[in-house]
Write a structure and sequence with these properties.
Layout: E1 2-4, E2 9-11, E3 14-17, E4 23-27, E5 33-37, E6 41-45, H1 56-61, E7 75-80, E8 88-93, H2 97-111, H3 121-132, H4 137-146, H5 164-174, H6 178-186, E9 193-195, H7 196-207, H8 222-232, H9 236-240, E10 243-245, H10 246-253, H11 263-266, E11 279-284, H12 301-308, E12 313-319, E13 329-330, E14 340-341, H13 342-352, E15 361-367, H14 372-386, E16 416-419, H15 428-437, H16 442-450, H17 456-464, H18 492-495, E17 502-503, H19 509-515, E18 520-525, H20 526-535, H21 537-546, E19 549-552, H22 566-569, E20 575-578, H23 585-593, E21 602-604, E22 630-640, E23 649-656, E24 663-668, E25 686-691, E26 698-705, E27 710-717, E28 724-731, E29 737-751, H24 758-765, H25 767-785, H26 790-795, H27 842-846, H28 849-902, E30 903-904, E31 909-910, H29 912-1050, H30 1067-1071, H31 1097-1105, H32 1116-1120
Helix pairs in contact: 7-8, 12-13, 13-14, 24-25, 28-29
Region (Disordered): 423-493, 786-833, 1066-1087
Active site: 285, 332
Biased composition (Basic residues): 423-433
Length: 1121
């Protein structure tokens, strides 16, 4: 039965869910069907939290009076709405209680399935057709009308004929996809097909994430690609040939295997065993409000909605109730906002606290209740309604002491923590007195926070000065909030509920570090937090490693707007509280942040924000130590079904993260020309060259109409992005999935490489291409630098090297080259390249694939052993708890029975003997329980010892195996290095010998040329000098001849002589013929050397007289002497 409280109607209906689980249908008796998108369901309730009919007419129609049992157990209330404020309730009543319970559980399971909110493109199209054609011919006609096709009565299409394949064909003709043909042809398609090898290359190079480890996530092999093609290619004859068509590739791109987010990122996959301070926690501010801060209405339903949305920290502004019942209320103090009952809020929290996430919930109390009686009521409500879920006593492993970290979310599963001012005073009256006497001097408070308290009085004084939201400063600045009154002093009843989240007034980072109390936390208004972040960013990050910090909006945000949470996530702030009633860009980022990790409300902070030995500056522009920066490239190709209007559309890109990573409106495509069905942009990609901290960065893709009207968007964390060609389904501003609107993009995400190392990475990624390019460049340079004669020289056999002790041969001109010296290697002699082959370090050997694979195997084995023992331990603890409870209950029953037998009289008092017997019975029972606990502890200890020895044995085996593998890898590495070193040495020797031979030839040529030039110069100089001396001597002789002529003329005889005077011949006469005057000093014939030769003046005289010319030869040997 479906009933409506406003219309006072009751309608018998049939409630169904389609086979795909997309929509909830209800059909009345007239066969009229209505449907509801299951992903829009926020909650499905049964029991006391359901809406119950209040009017008598409705109760009569539902026959409430004749029902057996409670009516709320048969009621089913479905909560739906576009956001957390505008809520709609659908009310049903089942015939049996079990039906209502089953429907509520199954519907909530379907609605909270994260995969249904992250559908692939094919599922979206399938869901669209189910929605349009789910009922009858009328819906078919409506769908055809939307598609501008004939929809008259005679033109209807039978539903059974409109098959999914026909639907896809209809879409392909309605919205042609030329960009897919371009993608197809870019992969080297020959004709209309892609081969198996081409498809494998497409998947491995385009669709695979290069950041993945190739051992854990190996590239696809052709055989695997063939299996994949069989899922999407319908033409079996082409499959046998190893081919796939464009249609098959299109089906592959819209399949589950190509979602932009890996499904495992949606599951709870992060480690939840770290302290609470190591997580970002989804937090709400003034949770009760549905609108503005001054005049908005308050609602209990808001607590349910934020809990169902994954929020783990809600705020309760508690005030004293003014009614006669003296029930505390929740409202925004000193404003016109409405009030809601505190007890109803606690009940709503208890109902929905762990429906979406099992991890702990923090209730942030802003307690203005100055009535001890009403505070006691608040404490009692928390105890009674939350029951065992309320954490009252600290865990034994984590006492409230300095230096002890907070427990982990895993250890606090199913627990509710109270954040309220804690008092150590024995009574409320004393507390009020202490409140009036507390100091106002800030220096006193600073000293109390800096020095370690040594007595309860010091702790009391310090805690009295604490304030959650710094409300004592609200009179100084409107940013602090709207409340004008300090929080009330906590009574003993409320103080006992506070443990790991104790608010304290913040004084300085140094004081907090010195005190080192992880269980104390501070709240900062956004302006104050921004000031700390600006002045002391590194200290703020260090503070958040140990303690919790809560950030809340400033008081001037009376419209419930939100600040940008990314600012404080960058500093590691855990509780970044936002106004959930306002779904603006800040809230959209928050929803996108906590959508992952199973929507648990907890996100693990990056490692450097958790480790004490790492320091991080949120304003750093360089790469963070231990974090690999990313390069993100996004190309917007096209859009599908962005709007049903004939309007132009465009797409914008934003990047949120560290200040150095944030880029607002980094890309805006051109506006399509009146085409919103299938616009194609295919513009140049936008490149985010260096994303310093990808783990905190998010990419936002938003589509708008040409007038700026919002169509849809999607926020994706950078670490979760899958590279390649992807369809990105858009969502509305409430983060609800839109079925048809999508954007087709090409994304590249890879590790950032500085420009200086780009060539190195290119060489490593494609070594063959790199080597070929180097060889090509070397050949081109060789053609330019080749000298004349070098080719001929290189063809001749190389001459043998001369020995050092050989004497050089004389030169061709007969000159000696000088004394022989011992040859030395000149400084410019080519030396071999100093290639030092460094041995691989142990750390490098451990990074080898074989060792990494072995370590991962060991890790899996150890994890299985730990998991197995953990399971045994849980089972044993569960069994022990059951036995202990049974024994305790049995003892209690026997105690009560014995008590009844010993009581007598009207007062039902016990006799002394009965009291002693009862006391002895209780002591025996306690002894039995103590023995049982000791036995159980012994069993747990034995199980732990068994686990210890199992792990020890397994670790010993792992060490042995790892050492063997490491030895093998080391020997192989060393052998490879020796071989490589020998090859390098041989090559260097060969190159060196060639260079030396070439240098020797050049030296010989150079030396010969120098000697020849020197000799020629000397010869020319000597020749010139000889010529000058010879000319001078020639002139002297000619002068002598001229002087000799007059002398000879004087000696001529005046008279003829007798001939007989010649008859007496003497030796002189023989030597000197007659009529010849003897040469002066004839008897002392002097031979004057001429140029080192025996030429006399007589001979020259004779030569001149006879007019004969005598040539003088030059004796080289005499010249050299």
């Amino acid at each position: 039965m479906k009933w409506d409280d406003d219309l006072s109607t009751v309608t018998p209906i049939t409630l169904t869910v389609d086979p795909h689980g997309y929509f909830l249908h209800w059909t009345d008796q007239n066969k009229e069907t209505e449907l509801l998108d299951i992903t829009h369901i926020k909650d499905a309730r049964t029991g006391k939290s359901t809406k119950t009919p209040k009017e008598a007419k409705l109760r009569e129609l539902l026959d409430v009076g004749n029902l057996v049992g409670r009516i709320e157990n048969r009621l089913l209330t479905i909560v739906t709405g576009p956001d957390m404020v505008n809520i709609t309730y659908l009310n049903f009543m089942a015939l049996q209680e079990e039906e209502a319970t089953e429907w509520a559980e199954e519907l909530f399971s379907l609605a909270s399935n994260l995969l249904s909110h992250n559908m692939n493109r094919e599922t979206s199209l399938e869901k669209a057709i189910v929605r349009m054609f789910s009922a009858d011919k009328k819906r078919v006609e409506t769908a055809l009308e939307h598609c501008n096709l004939p929809f008259g009565r005679s033109d209807s299409i039978p539903l059974e004929d409109f098959t999914p394949d026909l639907y896809r064909s209809f879409l392909s003709h309605l919205c042609p996809r030329p960009e897919l043909s371009s993608v197809f042809s870019q992969q080297g398609a020959k004709g209309a097909y892609l081969s198996v090898d081409q498809m494998t290359e497409f998947i491995n190079e385009r669709q695979r994430d290069p950041r993945l480890n190739e051992i854990l996530y190996p590239p696809l092999r052709p055989s695997q690609t063939q299996t994949l093609m069989e899922k999407y290619e319908l033409n079996h004859s082409l499959l046998k040939q190893g081919l796939i068509t464009l249609e098959g590739l299109s089906k592959y791109l819209v399949s589950d295997e190509n979602g932009v987010i890996p499904p495992e990122k949606l599951d709870q996959s992060e480690d939840m065993t770290f302290p609470l301070s190591h997580y970002f926690i989804n937090s709400s501010h003034n949770t009760y409000l549905t609108a503005g801060q001054l005049a908005g209405s308050s609602s209990v339903e808001m607590y349910r909605q934020v809990m169902l949305a994954g929020c783990r920290c809600v705020e309760l502004d508690c005030w004293k109730g003014r009614t006669t019942e003296e029930e505390p209320v929740i409202t925004h103090g000193f404003t016109m906002t409405s009030e809601i009952c505190f007890k109803e809020v606690i009940e709503a929290i208890a109902e929905c606290a762990f429906k979406t996430s099992p991890f702990p919930v923090i209730l942030s109390f802003e307690n203005h209740v100055d009535s001890p009686k009403q505070q006691a009521k608040m404490a009692e409500y928390c105890r009674s309604i939350f029951g065992d879920a309320l954490l009252i006593d600290p865990l034994e492993k984590y006492p409230l002491e300095s230096g002890v970290p907070l427990p982990s979310p895993q250890e606090l599963i199913g627990k509710i923590l109270i954040k309220n001012k804690k008092s150590h005073k024995p009574s409320a009256a004393h507390g009020n007195k202490r409140m009036a006497e507390q100091p106002t001097n800030q220096s006193v408070a600073a000293e109390q926070a800096t020095d370690e308290p040594s007595s309860p009085r010091e702790i009391e004084a310090e805690d009295d000065d604490d304030d959650d939201d710094d409300d004592d400063d609200c009179k100084k600045t409107s940013d602090e909030g709207t409340a004008e009154e300090r929080e009330a002093v906590a009574t003993e009843e409320m103080s006992t509920l506070v443990n790991y989240v104790q608010p304290t007034k913040f004084n300085s980072f140094e004081a907090s570090k010195k005190v080192n109390r992880s269980f104390q936390m501070s709240s900062f208004v956004e302006t104050k937090a921004l000031e700390h972040l600006t002045k002391s960013p590194v200290e703020f990050v260090e503070y958040n490693k140990q303690q919790l910090s809560r950030i809340y909006p400033k008081g001037t945000r009376v419209d419930s707007s939100n600040y940008m949470p990314q600012l404080f996530w960058n500093a590691g702030c855990q509780l970044v509280a936002l106004n959930f009633q306002t779904i603006d860009l800040s809230m959209q980022l928050n929803l996108g942040m906590y959508e992952y990790n199973g929507k648990s409300g907890y996100r693990l902070k990056p490692e450097f924000m958790r480790r004490p030995d790492k320091h991080f500056d949120p304003f750093a522009e360089s790469t963070v130590d231990g974090i690999v920066a990313n390069t993100v490239k996004v190309k917007i190709i096209s859009g599908q079904f962005l709007s049903d209007k004939k309007v132009g559309v465009y797409v914008e890109l934003d990047m949120f993260g560290l200040p150095v990573d944030t880029r607002r409106k980094a890309l805006k495509t051109k506006t399509s020309q009146s085409n919103a069905i299938n616009p194609v942009w295919d513009e140049d990609p936008i490149i985010f060259k260096k994303v310093v901290l990808p783990t905190l960065a998010s990419l936002r893709i938003a589509a708008f109409e040409e007038g700026g009207k919002f169509i849809g968007h999607r926020i994706i964390p950078v670490p979760a992005i899958r590279p390649g060609y992807r369809y990105i389904g858009l969502r509305n501003e409430k983060n609800q999935s839109l079925i048809l609107p999508a954007v087709f993009v090409y994304i590249e995400v890879k590790d950032y490489v500085p420009d200086t190392f780009a060539d190195v990475i290119e060489a490593l990624s494609n070594p063959i291409r790199y080597v070929n390019l180097l060889e090509q460049r070397s050949q081109q340079l060789a053609a330019l630098t080749l000298e004349e004669g070098e080719e001929e020289t290189s063809k001749e056999p190389g001459p043998t090297e001369p020995k050092a002790n050989l004497r050089p041969a004389p030169l061709e001109n007969g000159l000696s080259p000088g004394p022989t010296v011992t040859p030395r290697t000149p400084t410019n002699t080519p030396q071999p390249a100093a290639t030092d082959m460094e041995a691989a370090t142990l750390e490098e050997l451990r990074q080898q694939k074989l060792i990494m694979r072995e370590q991962k195997r060991h890790y899996r084995e150890m994890k299985d052993v730990v998991k197995r023992h953990h399971k045994k331990t849980l089972e044993m603890v569960k069994e022990h708890t059951t036995k202990h409870n049974q024994a305790k209950n049995q003892h209690t029953r026997r105690h009560n029975a014995l008590l009844k037998t010993k009581q007598h009289g009207k007062t039902r008092s016990l006799t002394p003997g009965g009291e002693a017997e009862l006391k002895q019975f209780d002591e025996e029972g306690e002894d039995q329980l103590r023995e049982l606990r000791e036995q159980q502890q012994q069993q747990l200890l034995e199980l732990r010892q068994e686990q210890y020895y199992s792990e020890k044995y397994l670790k010993r085996e792992h060490i042995k195996q790892l050492m063997e593998k490491l030895t093998t890898v080391t020997e192989e590495s060393q052998n490879n290095q020796m071989k490589k070193l020998k090859d390098i040495c041989d090559k260097e020797k060969k190159d060196l010998k060639k260079k030396m031979e070439k240098r020797r030839t050049e030296k010989i040529k150079e030396r010969t040329l120098c000697v020849c030039v020197c000799v020629c110069v000397c010869l020319e100089d000597a020749q010139s000098k000889r010529q000058e001396r010879l000319v001078e001597q020639h002139k002297g002789i000619q002068q002598q001849i001229l002087d000799e002529k007059p002398k000879k003329q004087k000696q001529l005889p005046t008279k003829p002589q007798r001939k007989n005077r010649h008859l007496c011949v003497t030796p002189n006469h023989i030597e000197h013929p007659p009529n010849v005057t003897p040469w002066p000093n004839q008897n002392k014939e002097q031979k004057t050397p001429l140029y080192g030769q025996g030429v006399t003046l007589a001979k020259i005289k004779q030569s001149c007289a006879t007019k004969t010319t005598q040539s003088y030869t030059w004796d080289k040997q005499s010249y050299s002497q």
